[in-house]
Every structure is written in structure tokens, then in C-alpha cells.
Hints:
This protein is α+β, with helices and mostly antiparallel strands. It has helices spanning 34-42, 50-74, 91-95, 103-117, and strands at residues 17-22, 25-32. A two-stranded antiparallel ribbon has the order 1-2.
Amino acid sequence: NCAAMEGGGAMRGGPLASTQVEGGRILPYTEVFCDRLEQVLAAGWGSAPLYRRHVLTGRAMARVLAHEIYHFLAQEKGHAGSGVAKNCFHHRDLLGEEFAFDEHTAGRMRGRAEQGESGEEEPAGRE
């Protein structure tokens, strides 16, 4: 839970993004809450010049979107304990050099992709 991590650059005031769910199915429509993202990132700027902040904001936004894309691809509302699919991000997660899925989460997404390729899953939009 991010509320326990409020100090020192963790999320404050709610999620960084939201992906739409309809009829229990996670849809590929995401909204990023840039004001909240900026709050988290501000703790990690230090004395970085403006152009560097722009680059890092792009990196952070891509990582937030990767997290939301995980929800869609895996059709998973839950979170992992670590990596891209974890519940809460610190500015170090969003600005650092490393950002990856843990093996369990990557395996779940591969399994979903293979299911979709084999035609075992019902096509999107039909329930």
C-alpha cells in the first residue's frame, strides 16, 4: 500500500494512472495522472537541469504506462510484489536505470499471449 510509503518520494494522493474495466474485462484505455506523477518525481530531481527532467519524465511516464499495459495484457487486476507490476512506485523506481517484470509476472503475460495466439480465449468485445 502506497499510503505507508508517503514520505520520500512515493505516491501521494492516489494512483499514477488508471485503466478502464468493463464487464470484468480490462480494456486498453488508460489515463495517466500527470499531476500525481510530477509529485512523485519531484523528490528525485535534485539539481537536474530542465532538459534532463523532461527526459526523466518521459521515462517515468513510459514506466507507468508499462504497468497499465501489464494489467491489460495479463487481464490481471492484482499486483505483484516487485517489478513493473508492483502496487506502488517510488521515484527511484520511475527514474532509475533498471525497470523490469519479475519472472512470475513475465510468465503470466507470456501464458496469456500464447492463449490468445492459439485461439483459446474468446475475442475481445464478446461476452
